[in-house]
Specification:
alpha+beta; BirA Bifunctional Protein, domain 2; Rossmann fold; 2 domains; RNA-binding
Length: about 450
RNA sequence: GUGGGUGUAGCUCAGUUGGUUAGAGCACCAGGUUGUGGCCCUGGGGGCCGAGGGUUCGAAUCCCUUCACUCACCCCA
């Protein structure tokens, strides 16, 4: 016997969970499409060189990489952004701005833990070919709409701009090579706090007293981590053109929110947000939830220089990603995700083997009325057939025995209420359909 | 890559200072009820106690090794 097992960090999705995942994907897709995004897919396998060197040192280590039979070095995609960049460079004829969504698995050779897997789904939206900060704003509005639609309320979208952080770093004399590491330390503010960040910075850089004061006054200042602080933060990057540009972009994003009516409680400009990936160049954003502590559930930002790596012509781009498993984890924690659902509405029980032909006809009529119907295959005890329906969560059961046959009727049992009524097939169908609407 | 925790029935877990044939609840199957699930009652199937080695008259229990799972760090969705 072969021991049934699957690789660490990989999972089976049983029907109960799969129905929930499909529901989430459906909600996400609807919002994406309502903003004009179109579906796209790419192969799960890419040449290793396409992926390598894009995510930073840590990211590269987590790429699943191996040789194919021809000795070529290939890799499972690590995210959906790099494959998209490759696509855009491959098909320059795509009309821009190019807005696509992609819901697909990605693979990372990470050590699994709560809310983290080696194979997981991302739901990406990206807008390629525009520098407008309204595009960035749209992504964040969509983030808000999607999470609301799924039923979340306890979330906070953090927004910042790499240009601000960059300008600040340059102004403070941090050299180019150290900037990513500088960002990563800043980014830990939420986790390790002010003192933790300072300690890390002091280990890697020479932190002047004035830099420390500025970090305290602007980056870590609670007051300034609100949208009202945009004018205050301006002082931080005074005289740096890139900084001004970054500020204007954030103002544009803020304007989109107020135009769209995104309530202020769901977002904040947070100057301690930096994000780990190397390729971000402009506005960056991520969503955190307070209840289960599982990092971020969405994350993204502008990456104007990435497509240039695959093409002579650099193309501006911005995008964001929803982590499907993290959303499911939060729903589970909220007690919404645990229930095993079924799409099946009715089970037609088999009272006697001779009645199978009748059952098939009943089921056919019901299916033609757009109901999901299952027929039971063997004439086992009703007790058994009913408990089967109950275990599956099927809400209605059809029973047709000698009594019904002689009267030309059908019995419909409501499994949730424990009630049943004797009806004609037509009435039965409308009863079930009306109950669906409830 | 670094550190902690846990491995006993399908699942959640008991199992005393080492001592007969390893337990419970849930789930499953059968019956109580040959036209009715959930509640109740009765019975039943299920275990290489993660694996390998050692100590011992005797090991689920002690020691070593190893594997698996899990949580945290790093990083990330």
């Amino acid at each position: 016997m072969i021991i049934p097992q699957i690789p660490k960090g990989f999972r089976d999705f049983l029907p109960g969970k799969m129905n929930l995942r499909k529901k989430i994907i459906g909600a996400v897709t609807e919002v994406f499409e309502s903003f004009g995004f179109e579906p796209m897919d790419t192969p799960c396998l890419e040449y290793a060189e396409t992926l390598e060197g894009k995510y930073g040192e840590e990211g590269d280590r987590l790429i699943y990489k191996f040789q194919d039979r021809g000795g070529r070095s290939v890799a499972l995609r690590y995210d959906l952004t790099i494959p998209l960049s490759r696509v855009v460079a491959t098909y320059p004829e795509l009309t821009r701005p190019f807005k696509r969504y992609q819901i697909a698995p990605v693979w990372r050779a990470d050590k699994p833990q709560k809310g983290r897997f080696r194979e997981f789904y991302q739901c990406d939206i990206d807008i390629i070919g525009t520098e407008s900060a309204y595009a960035d704003g749209e992504l964040v509005i969509i983030t808000y709409l999607v999470l609301k639609k799924i039923g979340f309320d306890n979330f906070l979208i953090r927004i910042n701009n790499r240009k601000l952080l960059n300008a600040f770093a340059v102004k403070e004399g941090i050299n180019d090579r150290q900037v990513p590491s500088f960002f990563r330390s800043i980014d830990k503010y939420d986790k390790i706090g002010r003192d933790g960040v300072m300690k890390e910075l002091q280990n890697n850089f020479t932190v002047s007293k004035s830099l420390e004061t500025k970090l305290d006054d602007y980056i870590f200042s609670e007051e300034n981590r609100k949208q009202t602080g945009l004018s205050e933060i301006a002082k931080l990057v005074e005289g740096m053109p890139a900084g001004d540009e970054g500020l204007r972009e954030l103002e544009t994003i803020r304007d989109s929110f107020s135009a769209y009516g995104v309530p202020e409680k769901y977002y904040m400009f947070d100057f301690s947000l930096a994000r780990g990936l190397d390729y971000y160049t402009g506005p960056i954003f991520e969503t955190i939830v307070t209840e289960p502590r599982i990092g971020s559930i969405t994350g993204g930002g502008r990456y104007d220089n990435l497509i240039g790596l695959f093409s002579r012509n650099p193309v501006p781009a911005t995008g964001t990603s929803f982590g499907l498993e993290r959303i499911v984890t939060v729903l589970d924690e909220m007690g919404i995700g645990g229930s095993d659902g079924t799409m099946t509405r009715i089970l037609v029980t088999l009272f006697d083997a001779d009645l199978m032909a009748d059952n098939l006809r009943i089921a056919k009529t019901m299916r033609e009325a757009d109901l999901n119907v299952e027929v039971y295959f063997s004439p086992q005890k009703l007790k058994k057939q009913l408990s089967y329906a109950a275990n599956r969560g099927i809400p209605f059961v059809v029973i047709q025995g000698p009594d019904e046959i002689s009267q030309g009727t059908i019995t419909l049992r409501n499994m949730n209420k424990g009630t049943q009524e004797v009806l004609s097939l037509g009435d039965l169908i409308s009863t079930v359909k009306n109950s669906v609407l409830q």
